[in-house]
Design a protein that fits this description.
Largest sheet: none
Order of helices and strands: HHHHHHHHHHHHHHHH
Radius of gyration: 21 Å
Length: 303
């Protein structure tokens, strides 16, 4: 078991460049061109939102901790970088990924409980009752991930930085939510956990939907290019809350500049997450569900 991210299989085998990840998926699509054309699906990010929603439903019924849910999301994303989604029953993959993640995060759920709860949530698409079916799928996931099961998450770095960056509980909650959302993107396959954590803090400080947050966001560009102390006149007309928020942003930027966090990577992560929020407005649960149901039924993947 890797003691830290830098020595982990996650860094060595499951962190890609955007180009490499694109080539992996393109090869998969080329091999399944006819199947893909026959059963069109929504944007990958919209599918991720749907999968996350289903995973959360199942996790809630079994009182699964957030870290196990996050690990399951990473497993699903890794698996579908190797296997075309239309070759599988996504509901079975979701249930199996959560079952496996709970074991790896030391909060195991009984296999019969997982199957029972999954059948309650998805009676049309999860009709299996034999535990051997989920057991087979578990080995399928493990095999496609080459038995690389340890996942390092950004939550630990976020907690470690709370005092260093003088983060209030509200800042922590917002950053935690951003980290939760990043699992709906490709970022877990592209960047180290500490970069995600710092990006989440940055977004929590600059994009919060409050007057103070909006005023802080307006000064972010200046903070990124000049981390020196602002002139006193620059605080005129700005609320105390906004001034405090600006100081937090400037402290973060100074800390990043003095450390080894890649600012370019942070900006790329920020853009990816903001892009997710933009496309989220197009999400339609009914459309996703119907398009997935079509290939499940036609191809007999619900048996």
């Amino acid at each position: 078991m890797a003691a830290n991210y830098w020595a982990s299989t996650q860094r060595r085998y499951w962190q890609f460049s955007r180009q490499h990840l694109f080539e992996i998926r393109q090869k998969l699509e080329d091999n399944e061109r006819q199947l893909i054309q026959q059963y069109p699906l929504p944007d990958r990010r919209l599918l991720s939102i749907f999968f996350n929603q289903q995973l959360a439903k199942l996790g809630k019924r079994m009182a699964v901790r957030q870290q196990a849910l996050a690990t399951a999301q990473v497993y699903i994303r890794r698996f579908y970088s190797k296997v075309e989604i239309r070759q599988t029953n996504p509901y079975l993959i979701i249930a199996t990924a959560l079952y496996l993640a709970c074991k790896m995060e030391e909060s195991p759920q009984h296999i019969r409980v997982v199957i029972s709860e999954a059948r309650q949530i998805w009676p049309e698409y999860f009709v299996i009752s034999d535990i051997a079916k989920l057991g087979e799928c578990e080995f399928y996931l493990i095999s496609e991930m080459n038995s690389h099961m340890i996942v390092h998450h950004p939550y630990r770095t976020l907690n470690e930085l709370q005092n260093t960056l003088n983060l209030a509980q509200e800042d922590m909650s917002l950053a935690w939510s951003v980290i939760n959302d990043h699992y709906l993107t490709d970022l877990p396959l592209l960047y180290p956990p500490h970069v995600i954590a710092v990006t989440a803090i940055f977004l929590a400080l600059t994009l919060k939907p409050t007057p103070a947050g909006l005023q802080a966001a307006a000064s972010t560009a200046a903070a990124l290019t000049n981390s020196s102390s602002p002139h006193k006149d620059s605080d005129v007309g700005i609320s105390p809350a906004a001034i405090m928020q600006q100081k937090k942003v400037q402290h973060l930027v100074s800390w990043v500049a003095e450390g080894e966090v890649d600012l370019t990577a942070m900006m790329d992560c920020s853009q990816e997450i903001i892009s997710l929020y933009d496309i989220w407005e197009q999400w339609n649960e009914k459309v996703c569900k119907e398009q997935i149901a079509r290939f499940i039924r036609v191809r007999g993947l619900d048996k």
